Amino acid sequence: MKTINENKLAISKRRSQNIAFFLLGFLGYFIVAILLVILSFIVIKGFSVISWDFITKMPEEGMTKGGIYPAIIGTLYLVAGSMLFAFPIGVLAAIYMNEYVKDGFVKKFIKQMTNNLSGIPSIVFGLFGMSLFVNKLGFGDSILAGSLTLGLLVLPIVIRTTEEALKAVEDTFRQASLGLGASKWQTTRRVVLPIAFPNIITGLILSVGRVSGETAPILFTVAAYFLPKLPTSIFDQAMALPYHLYVISTSGTNIEESRPIAYGTALVLVLIVLITNLLANALRKFFGKKVKMN
Amino acid sequence: MKTSYKKISEKLIESLLFVSSMVTSLTVILIVIFLFKEGLSVFNETPVEAGNVIAVNKKNPLSSLSSEQIKNIFDQKITHWNEVAGSKDSILLFRLEDISNYYTDEQIGENFEHLPECISKVVDSIPGILAFFPEKYLSKNFHGKKIEFNKIALKEFFLGKEWFPTAQPAAQLGVLPLILGTLWVSFGAILLALPLGLAAAIYMSEIAKPKVRNVMKPLIELLAGIPSVVYGFFGLVVIVPLIQKLFDLPVGETGLAGSIVLGIMALPTIITISEDAMRNTPRAMKEASLALGASKWQTIYKIVIPYSISGITAGAILGIGRAIGETMAVLMVTGNAAVIPHSILEPMRTIPATIAAELGEAPDGGLHFKALFALGCILFIITLCINLIVEYVSGRKTHKAH
User: For domain B52-150, is the CATH number 3.40.190.10?
Assistant: First the structure.
């Protein structure tokens, strides 16, 4: 009697596990399917639009024809500008947090504030960038104002990825260097940073992907609706890829006619993210192997 | 000599590092200052644009009006003065262009030089009048009574049911529809994303083979990297038409479209954080459960999930936070109607979308501009609270573990 009951129990246990696992697996693959649908939709629709002319020509005829060259250049400027600002500061801040400051109030405070900064919605950065850089400091709608706003937005990300990279460096390296009489900065520069370097660069690449797609912070700090010439200084307005996609898919006068351009622009944006992600993964793998071999 | 030089440079470097590390804190403080200085000044403003006057007859006992009252009077929902604590007369509206009903062009004068006089006489002669005109036409010996406007009140701002910041003569700055729109869209998103995300997290951390996981994990990270405009664009060209067809709606731009797009966008956050939490379950606990004869599934829902519940909660709350702050995707797919929503199948408008859509048109330093900064303040406070809750929740776990 007892054994039959136990068998029954075992069978029902088995069955509920099978059902649960099937469902969980199904939902897991469902998410992957959603991602693939979005990606393939953009790739298929955009692929026929993208050509050499598309990425090297000016927009024409109310942005229904021609290319997106100025938007690509604008985004490049913004990425470069924001990284020039955020990367050095972020890396230095992370070094301070991980190598220098001792546990205590200061560390806790900085950590908390960095956390808070990373939680602030991007549109609030837009408001802030506009009132500080555009109005107060008088930069106007410019690449400079946009770059600084975007730089502040990615700063917490740069700090976090760099901190992780530094944390991954084993303490024995530091102790050995300090034990040989090297100073703290010498240890950091000659020992810790070279080991952490690949991971820091990986973080940098991922931040580039993030910055190139941000729209809300540049709405009121740089973005020009239509500007058929290239910016000549950092005080010029510029077009940018994400803003371009937003404008031509929602508020243009010829929304239907400019659809192909929108698909193309979306694909370029996705490609940037894909490439930065692949690059970051490849780097991670490459250097991961190298370290293991040693 | 050499050592002191070395010491000084070490100190210099350390202070440089310290300054760099203070940038984030400084930014947060500056954001608070700029945001709240501009945003809070909205409560020092009157709802009527500066340079305009609202006046009544001298005998009218009324002395002040709120923006809602002004709007209702101009919409002719209020037609008698006694409804707003005034005289018994019925209200007669007078706008600048109505002057031609009382005086001829000649009497007003070629360059409107007699216009202030004329307005003053009209206001003086009609007991039930409510006149709205530019301040420059206010006569020096005006016979009527200027109405004081109440400043925009906190309660009016948060509980006002209408967001119409450019309305004449009195702007309507009720944030309630925007707050409700934000909440509807965000909670819709979490309702969709949480079960899906949790299932995927369990699958990835406990069930899937390492090979499968190594493919899924980077894919989901990729999902997090796609810019929000691209999601918005996808929503606009795929999800919006689909919803319109499926539910047979006049427009597909609805709260539901926003929820779906935001749900997809919140997935990576939920999955990554809760998967991390589950993978942190001590191996010994899982093995003990299995050794006692529990099945893998029983171990998951009796051991792994309870152990990682704080991480899962943190992931869910953080997902909500992302959804509340998300701007572009929502702006593109929710239809942006600033009315109090009654169903998820109606167009809605969220706080970030409102800022993004309207700031470009709001004149610097004007009432509308300040009101949008006030919205920014609300958003800032909400996301700050969410951050603190997340920290509290995930902090609790470490206490328990010790």
Answer: yes
